[in-house]
């Protein structure tokens, strides 16, 4: 895993000092080495976390004659098979890295090469002969890629703080981006929360040449017609097992450094860990997150699984105070407002991984989206059942079956459940599944300042527009497919894989690998009948069947409990953290211009009275929205763009500068300078 950045212009030679400044802000993503390539049109920068081909895989990397260069962040897990095919077509390789496969695949297949990659990536490829820069991002957005147009030209990078090394870029929050965050929990690509900064959408590539900048999809998530024949259950179960075993095995064995595994105690990480233990021979170290509060802790289940597999187990116990202390740094790495504290414990967990000598972990992330594990899918099924006969008392009571893991579950408050889940029961609404979540989040916008509300204006987040963006033919999908598409398009790429995934892992120079997001698993799961994913209200039905022999029944049958962390209470237990009053003062809120200072003051006073405990879900989200947005403003807008104090670049491994007559090009054609 690495950090990539660059500058491209057809009007001026890219500035070398700017490129180096951009690279400095990505050292945490790649502390093992760095390199750059520069010519009269393009400069590519790279900071390296050496995982595959440590000796020969330094970047930027080129083809045989130096006409095509790539800076790459990620892994192409089927690179061995692709390299063999490309050699058969006459291509010559100088390394055994997955990076070199990219330049040869581009030579052979052009834009079609991205469909052939099975992996997680963000890359920049400069085709010197065609005078064309190509950017690409993996199917579901595991790896980030941001870009902006400034005085230096097109600047692009793995993180926004690297872009902000360009002093010509404006530093301002984008009202529409904030509005989307306060609706969907994150922005929807290409939008970000920063004015003038965009992100390449998952499953897309972009081309920048003398004709301009344009983007296009190379992959789209689709689901089958709901009337398709139902395949044989036994055969389908076996096929799923084979695909997921291969996905997990590849992510464990295709590495030149040891690979660990996250073990949450839930079904998904238990499956991936069990597969690694069964189908590989390497000693397995597992890493778990625990909480000082019993309400959030899953330590008992973690011990059951670790004991069953005989792993070398490591865990960290996180308190509310721990969350509050690291939260400013968490927001600096997340580069966005957060409506939950959940990324903070994961930041501390990845720190434990790195301190234990590991820089790669396999995780169970993505299974809930791919196999319909979230309660939001169960909720949608209940609401659709209810919508068929809204006046039926029996159907109304179905809402009481939802969220059994919550202390204040719908079953404990049936009248509230009927009131909350009974709104917007339009069976024809393609976004029926997500209306309750979006409605609940939208109330946060009542705290926005009048000026910001006016700035949002007609650009207000439009759930109807998002639903209208569903692919052609989606009206024939099962409703579960539409719900999965919405979840993948919003929460998965914008929050789960970003704020909780890549950004918290890479903050501590750790690469995450996600078997459930393997290209073959993704395609297979998308084409499953809805009943094989959500059978009645039993989530992940086929997945549980496929691995019944590897996961103890105690874990396989446990109630679904999503990962959660203490929110509002984290900032008021034993007093507020040192930074709190400065960030949340009336003057600071006024200066940021996002929220109404008087409403923020009232909310904070309420939290102080209660210690932040027993806050409603809405008030807790309000507080998190304000705290994280204030930190985002202080760090990136009022501050120095998120930059740290000029971190030193690691050892320069590749330096090819055709604008300075550098002779390194004569000795570097594949990886080593």
TrEMBL record:
<dbReference type="InterPro" id="IPR006426">
    <property type="entry name" value="Asn_synth_AEB"/>
</dbReference>
<dbReference type="GO" id="GO:0005524">
    <property type="term" value="F:ATP binding"/>
</dbReference>
<dbReference type="Pfam" id="PF00733">
    <property type="entry name" value="Asn_synthase"/>
</dbReference>
<dbReference type="InterPro" id="IPR051786">
    <property type="entry name" value="ASN_synthetase/amidase"/>
</dbReference>
<keyword id="KW-0061">Asparagine biosynthesis</keyword>
<comment type="similarity">
    <text>Belongs to the asparagine synthetase family.</text>
</comment>
<keyword id="KW-0315">Glutamine amidotransferase</keyword>
<feature type="active site" description="For GATase activity">
    <location>
        <position position="2"/>
    </location>
</feature>
<dbReference type="InterPro" id="IPR029055">
    <property type="entry name" value="Ntn_hydrolases_N"/>
</dbReference>
<dbReference type="Pfam" id="PF13537">
    <property type="entry name" value="GATase_7"/>
</dbReference>
<keyword id="KW-0028">Amino-acid biosynthesis</keyword>
<dbReference type="InterPro" id="IPR001962">
    <property type="entry name" value="Asn_synthase"/>
</dbReference>
<dbReference type="GO" id="GO:0006529">
    <property type="term" value="P:asparagine biosynthetic process"/>
</dbReference>
<feature type="domain" description="Glutamine amidotransferase type-2">
    <location>
        <begin position="2"/>
        <end position="211"/>
    </location>
</feature>
<protein>
    <recommendedName>
        <fullName>asparagine synthase (glutamine-hydrolyzing)</fullName>
        <ecNumber>6.3.5.4</ecNumber>
    </recommendedName>
</protein>
<keyword id="KW-0547">Nucleotide-binding</keyword>
<feature type="binding site">
    <location>
        <position position="98"/>
    </location>
    <ligand>
        <name>L-glutamine</name>
    </ligand>
</feature>
<dbReference type="InterPro" id="IPR014729">
    <property type="entry name" value="Rossmann-like_a/b/a_fold"/>
</dbReference>
<dbReference type="InterPro" id="IPR017932">
    <property type="entry name" value="GATase_2_dom"/>
</dbReference>
<dbReference type="InterPro" id="IPR033738">
    <property type="entry name" value="AsnB_N"/>
</dbReference>
<keyword id="KW-0067">ATP-binding</keyword>
<comment type="pathway">
    <text>Amino-acid biosynthesis; L-asparagine biosynthesis; L-asparagine from L-aspartate (L-Gln route): step 1/1.</text>
</comment>
<feature type="site" description="Important for beta-aspartyl-AMP intermediate formation">
    <location>
        <position position="365"/>
    </location>
</feature>
<dbReference type="GO" id="GO:0005829">
    <property type="term" value="C:cytosol"/>
</dbReference>
<dbReference type="GO" id="GO:0004066">
    <property type="term" value="F:asparagine synthase (glutamine-hydrolyzing) activity"/>
</dbReference>
């Amino acid at each position: 895993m690495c950090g990539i950045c660059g500058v491209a212009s057809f009007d001026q030679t890219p500035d070398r000092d700017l490129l180096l400044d951009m690279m400095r802000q990505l050292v945490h993503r790649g502390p093992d080495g760095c390199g750059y390539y520069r010519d009269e049109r393009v400069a590519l920068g790279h900071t390296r976390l050496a995982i595959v081909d440590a000796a020969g895989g330094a970047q930027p990397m080129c083809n045989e004659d130096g006409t095509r260069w790539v800076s790459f962040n990620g892994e192409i897990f089927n690179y061995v098979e692709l390299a063999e095919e490309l050699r058969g077509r006459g291509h010559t390789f100088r390394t055994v890295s997955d990076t070199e496969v990219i330049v040869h695949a581009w030579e052979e297949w052009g834009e079609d090469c991205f469909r052939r990659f099975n992996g997680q990536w963000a890359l920049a490829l400069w085709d010197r002969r065609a005078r064309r820069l190509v950017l690409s991002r993996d199917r579901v957005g595991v790896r980030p890629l941001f870009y902006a147009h400034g005085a230096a030209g097109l600047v692009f990078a793995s993180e926004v703080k690297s872009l902000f090394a360009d002093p010509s870029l404006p530093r301002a929050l984008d009202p529409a981006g904030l509005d989307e965050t306060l609706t969907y929990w994150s922005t929807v690509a290409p939008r970000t929360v920063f004015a003038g900064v965009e992100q390449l959408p998952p499953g897309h590539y972009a081309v920048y040449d003398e004709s301009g900048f344009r983007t296009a999809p190379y992959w789209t998530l689709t689901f089958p017609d709901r009337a398709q024949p139902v395949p044989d259950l036994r055969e389908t179960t076996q096929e799923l097992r084979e695909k997921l075993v291969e996905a997990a095995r590849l992510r464990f064995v295709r590495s030149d450094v040891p690979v660990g595994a996250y073990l949450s105690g839930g079904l998904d990480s238990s499956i991936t860990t069990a597969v690694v233990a069964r189908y590989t021979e390497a000693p397995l170290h597992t890493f778990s997150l625990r909480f000082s509060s019993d309400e959030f802790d899953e330590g008992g289940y973690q011990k059951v699984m670790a004991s069953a597999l005989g792993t070398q187990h490591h865990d960290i116990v996180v308190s509310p105070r721990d969350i509050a202390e690291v939260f400013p740094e968490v927001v600096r790495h997340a580069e966005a407002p957060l409506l939950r504290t959940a990324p903070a414990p994961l930041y501390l967990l990845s720190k434990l991984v790195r301190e234990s000598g590991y820089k790669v972990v396999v995780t169970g992330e993505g299974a809930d989206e791919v196999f319909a594990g979230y309660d939001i899918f169960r909720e949608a099924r209940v609401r659709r059942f209810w919508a068929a006969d809204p006046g039926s008392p029996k159907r109304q009571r179905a809402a009481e079956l939802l969220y059994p893991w919550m202390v204040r579950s719908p079953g404990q408050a049936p009248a509230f459940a009927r009131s909350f889940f009974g709104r917007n029961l339009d069976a024809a609404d393609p976004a029926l599944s997500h209306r309750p979540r979006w409605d609940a989040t939208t109330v946060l916008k009542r705290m926005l300042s009048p000026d910001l509300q006016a700035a949002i204006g007609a650009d207000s987040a439009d759930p109807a527009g998002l639903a209208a963006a569903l692919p052609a033919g989606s009206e024939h999908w099962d409703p579960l497919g539409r719900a999965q598409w919405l979840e993948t398009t919003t929460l998965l790429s914008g929050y789960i894989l970003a704020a909780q995934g890549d950004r918290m892992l890479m903050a501590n120079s750790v690469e995450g690998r996600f078997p459930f997001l393997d290209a073959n698993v993704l395609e297979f799961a998308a084409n499953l009948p809805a009943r094989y994913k959500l059978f009645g209200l039993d989530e992940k039905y086929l997945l549980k069947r496929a691995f019944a022999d590897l996961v103890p029944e105690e874990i396989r049958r446990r109630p679904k409990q999503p990962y959660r962390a203490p929110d509002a209470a984290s900032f008021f237990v034993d007093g507020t953290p040192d930074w709190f009053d400065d960030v949340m003062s009336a003057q600071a809120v006024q200066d940021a211009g996002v929220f109404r200072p008087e409403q923020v003051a009232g909310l904070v006073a309420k939290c102080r009275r209660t210690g932040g405990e027993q806050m409603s879900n809405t008030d807790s989200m309000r507080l998190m929205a304000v705290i994280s947005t204030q930190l985002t403003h202080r760090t990136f807008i009022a501050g120095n763009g998120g930059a740290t104090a000029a971190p030193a670049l690691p050892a320069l491994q590749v330096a090819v500068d055709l604008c300075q007559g550098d002779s390194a090009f004569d000795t570097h054609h594949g990886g080593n300078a």
